[in-house]
Amino acid sequence: MRLMTFAALAMAVLLLVQEASGQTRVDEAARMMAENLAKQSLQSLMLGDSPSALDLALKAFPPQPTEQEMAALPDAVFALEIAAGSRVARIAEETRGLYSVDSTGTRAFVGFFDPRAGAEGAVPAIHDPRDGTLIRRLDEVKAVTAPEHSPVFSPDGRLLAYPTMPGISVQLFNAQDGSWAGEMGSGMVLPRPGTILPLGFSSDGAFYAVGYLNNGGGILVWNVADRSLVRHLVSNGGPGETSWPLGWDHEDGFAVQNFVTDRTSGRRSGVVLERWTMDGQRRTVADLAGVIDAPSSRSFTFPGVPMVLMTDEARLAAIDLETGSVRFTTEVLHPEVALVRGGSAFAIRPFDLGSLDEFQVIDRQGARLPPEGRDLIPLAQAAVSRTGELVAVARNATRHTYGGQDLPHGSALYGAVLQRLGGDRRMAIDQDRAGAQTDAARGAQLMSQNFASEAITALRHGDRRGAIGLALRGLPDGPTEEDMATYAAAAFALELAAGARVPRIAQDREARFSVNSSGTRAFISHWEDSSRPDTRAFPQSIIDPRDGRVIRQLAPQIEVHGISSPGISASFSPDGTLLAVPSNRTSSVHIFAAGDGAYLGEMGPGGTAAGQKGVGYEVGFSVDGRLYARGYGVPGAAGIHVWDVATRQLLYHLPMSLDRNARQWPLGWDHQANLFMQTAIKDPGAPGQNRIVIERWSLNGAISPFVATTGRPFDAEVTAFAYPATGLLFLSTEGGVTAVDMASGQVRFVRQLAAPFVAMARGGRAVVLNPRQLVSPDQFVVLDLAGNELTIRGRDAVAFMHALFSLNGNRIDESRGPLATTYLGHGTAEGLELYHALWAQLDAEERARIKEERVPRQ
After folding, report:
1. Measured between alpha carbons, how far is residue 806 from residues 268, 505, 577, 818 in Å?
2. How many CB atoms sit inside 10 A of residue 8's CB?
3. Largest Cα–Cα distance of the chain, in whole Å?
4. Helix/strand/coil percentages in the chain, nearest 5
5. Which positions ≥6 away from 392 have C-beta within 8 Å?
6. What does the mean pLDDT of the chain come to?
7. What is the pLDDT of residues 740-750, one digit of tens each?
8. If we measure between CA atoms, which residue out of 4, 6, 3 comes closest to residue 852?
């Protein structure tokens, strides 16, 4: 969504303060209120509350608006178009899965079949996405589909195709009622591990195709009418050559990426774009060296458009399928792309569905266009639970989806939406319209809230300095304590901006990121992928996260390779002076000085784990920083290593179970330097549930029970957050969080919330819960240690705001360090003291700009 510019806000201030005309004052206040209502509409939409989203968007307009009045409220029009056309379905199911919407906008697929579990709610289904109504569960589905491709509907919306693996077939269902419509088989079974690349329906719906990568790659094509396999196109390449199908081209052939993999190094070379015809002919279109070197399951082609949009997960390139020329490139992380404006342009957004203000619109010649609300309709599709938790997302499902093509424009859209509402609902809208409250104080309040919202948006693009400036603008000149309370949103944003660590670096690849407890040092590392030629150009380093300044490139560079929960990225010691970088390649841990990045030595594994590649579970540093614990799993062995950090000697080795029906992993330290261990026990008598047992393991080998519960099989049944400083272990599940007393094992309190993350706040006297929903930081929940809710302050949310960005402001961190030892905003001023400290850091020119543009004193 487009936000008010500084100039527009400054003009609003001048009009409010200087204009003698009361009507002008009213108009400007109403305009700001309309923008505020538009923002609220988008927030409601992303929580799956489409009715509220529509009501809020309608309230932003005057009654029976003219075309001129509609044009004067672009943010409200933006919100109304998305609310009217998006298909964010609120459903009763809690299953995690895939989502897709048909071309008419009346049917949606939700679900993902997992043959291992039979978990409740896992059966795929067809819903009406407008209100979430269940049409039918697809009980005939008995095989898994590709996790990166949503099953899609035919171009006319009549059929749903569900491709399966490892036995490659396509199950068909009638979209209207969900009934079985047949199956298209191939007789081909992929070896494990293997995956399919569903290419979907041809432009006219006559054919359906599935690609695969095994044995050099190939494409299977079926005739949809008679369900017969009509083509099997295979790669003719030599040793190490792979053909990666990308999608249908504009002439009902296929775009294919071809490359050669060096079996020794794993690196790829000879990357080219080809076109394959249905009769097996192949033609090289372009050499992709330096454009898109790494293949990705996220590539996009659209009917009638002679282009393929290819991505290496961080950059997107549009390549002409006739000439091989690059039409345009753009930087975007994990993109989703849709064809909009009658096929003349593309809407592009990062896969983060909460980013309604971060998408781009680019025409087929590469020119950037001002975005409109309806541009985002095909990209604003998801299913959420009754509690607003995101449960199903669309992946590679925009080729034949609904794009709001039947929606009228301007005041006609407003009238059409309003006409569908009942009389009571219309009356409520009329009473709360933007023009109902138009006094100057209300206008100043709305202006302040806009500045606060822009400040948080700036943080989410890695612009901390800009965020501080925006938050300062949200407060009047020379603010008092009363002003800080009156303009609470701006005060909140100021605290958040002061504490957040959101550096920008000269990289656009996925990264690991950790911030130490003082907020003065951070670890950055590439996300290892040996297939990418520039991987080694992104060295592991220690930086100052306040400004992105590199302190030192680490030597040696450690191949981290897939560190597991809870320490997803490398962790700092509790006092912030040491950095521990573990390696799954060698099962060892390397220690660096955080201050200057100096290498201090290696903590090596013992027994059969020595030098072996495996999985890791980082417990991290003990509360006093003396010990470091790490779980490991290598062929034939699993356990926990505990080292003395000062001497780097292995002190303890605690073996873990190798039983596949009793998976074990460490959760964290307790308040007495013991370890919490979780065991998920598969019960053959209850296939829909696992028994979850959490035990306390002392370092001398003694084991005592702590707490037991149940959870869904092969899922992240319980996410644990162990904070010895609070004396509590927090167990987060889909239903909420349970706080368990570390000493007694008794439940201290339970809070219902959608599977929250938990961080400490206020020096360990409180905790903040970040629900796994699409909410803004001021909607996090803060509780004292007895479970009582507290009023949230900006500093409370700091732990969840740390992020790493490219120079263009695109977020690139794929994993972050443990919350237990990250920066929580402590050690800085609060309230007026913080305001004056930050104001003092500004030069005279910046102060003058802020004074000119800030909220006027009432």
Report:
1. 25, 5, 26, 22
2. 15
3. 83
4. 20, 35, 45
5. 95, 96, 97, 98, 99, 110, 111, 112, 382, 383
6. 85
7. 999 999 999 99
8. 6
